[in-house]
Amino acid sequence: MSEQAKLEKNITAAILVIGDEILSGRTKDQNIGFIADYMTNVGIDLKEVRIVPDIEEEIITAVNALRHRYTYVFTTGGIGPTHDDITADSVAKAMGVSIDVDERAVELLLTRLKREDLNEARLRMCRIPKGADLITNQISAAPGFKIGNVMVMAGVPRIMQAMLANVVETLETGAKMISETLEAGLPEGAYAKGLEEVDKQYSDVSIGSYPHFNTSGGGFKNQIVLRSKNLASLKAATADTQAMLDALQAARGNA
Amino acid sequence: MSEQAKLEKNITAAILVIGDEILSGRTKDQNIGFIADYMTNVGIDLKEVRIVPDIEEEIITAVNALRHRYTYVFTTGGIGPTHDDITADSVAKAMGVSIDVDERAVELLLTRLKREDLNEARLRMCRIPKGADLITNQISAAPGFKIGNVMVMAGVPRIMQAMLANVVETLETGAKMISETLEAGLPEGAYAKGLEEVDKQYSDVSIGSYPHFNTSGGGFKNQIVLRSKNLASLKAATADTQAMLDALQAARGNA
Hints:
- The structure is a homodimer of 255-residue chains.
- Chain A is α/β, with parallel strands linked by helices and 255 residues long.
- Chain A has two domains: 3-168, MoaB/Mog-like domain (Molybdenum Cofactor Biosythetic Enzyme, Chain A, 3-Layer(aba) Sandwich); 178-254, CATH 3.30.70.600.
- Chain A is built from ten helices and eleven strands.
- In chain A, strand 6 (133-135) and strand 7 (144-147) form a beta hairpin.
- The longest helix of chain A is centred in the C-terminal third of the chain and has 24 residues, at 231-254.
- The first copy, chain A, is elongated, with a radius of gyration of 23 Å.
- Chains A and B meet through helix 2, helix 3, strand 2, helix 7 and helix 9 of A and helix 2, helix 3, strand 2, helix 7 and helix 9 of B.
């Protein structure tokens, strides 16, 4: 695809995190931030994230809401062998397809397990919706899967990361979002008006202002982040923003 | 409220994280895990989380979906002075109320700012929907607010945490969820069937099995977490689970 065609094509995604343990606070999610970075790097726009409990109806509702709206949906969690792992069956129901033990998944498990250890629970990890492609990983034998535009991945970060790398290779990606970060050096309230004026001039640049507390001293600092898929616009908007900040600083110095 | 009445009353909540910077991966969310722990500790069941971009329509849709479904909604992010801070106006629209500069908020800002520095951008932080109560915090002058069952808080973790502590004091809370954690010492596939049998016996205990990778050696380990608001049920289910694991271990030892 030409760079221009890529710019015009918006590839979007949502993440669906499935698991009571995240909602109870017992497990702190490490996947959302990782996938968000990954999407930005490959040129897919992450537009929404949901976290839902291990309840079939909740998973089905969320999968259907997200898959009809975005190019891709990435789910994490709930594909192990225990009774609370209901993601595969729930996704099959959401997609309206049947699900059964998949021989390809059985073969994968048999590379690490003896056949006599392949009990009912472990066979649960081989339940794959009809028509899905497997997503393998180098860490554990049990696969995730891709059905339609839904990628079903493990919740354990190391396994999820391996699955993500493998499946993203098979997906369409768009123009990469590029960004510039400026240290404002001023309170937000001092530059908010000027920043809004720059923002209005560039429809293809998204500009945000982010205060953060510097725990190693210095109190609050503000960063301005400019993001665009168009390098020329990004450079122009960044220069305008810097000029606006410089003028404010100079006015302060003279006050 | 009696302990029995508390047990029967389910207080639920959702979190709505608002911000492009989380979806782009630039900022890693630190608020979801903190609020999740906080809710568990005070006896509120966190049932859903959504992350949406700084787009008015997205915020309105999410606020309305969540506020009609759960006892409380906690939002984080988007209440600063810059053009991308659109949470207060979006929440006002979702609730169908007007919004304007609020004199109580102006008074708060004037405790830290001179009146001549109270420019248009800073007054933006004083825009509070009609009928809302302010949520103050000890870190910054700008307040959050509570309108109906929606609590609007800052995105900066230190400020959010101070607001959360202040507002939760005014909310109704339920029975505290209590939990027990067992080290399985066995592969998930070995105890999944036994665990499902215990789970079926206790309708008021939620049982999950969580593999995690021990980076300091030992590879994968599995923890079984039992959660309930009923201490007697929790103790009985925990004892049954431990007995089930012990029997499996003994059988392994004899094999």
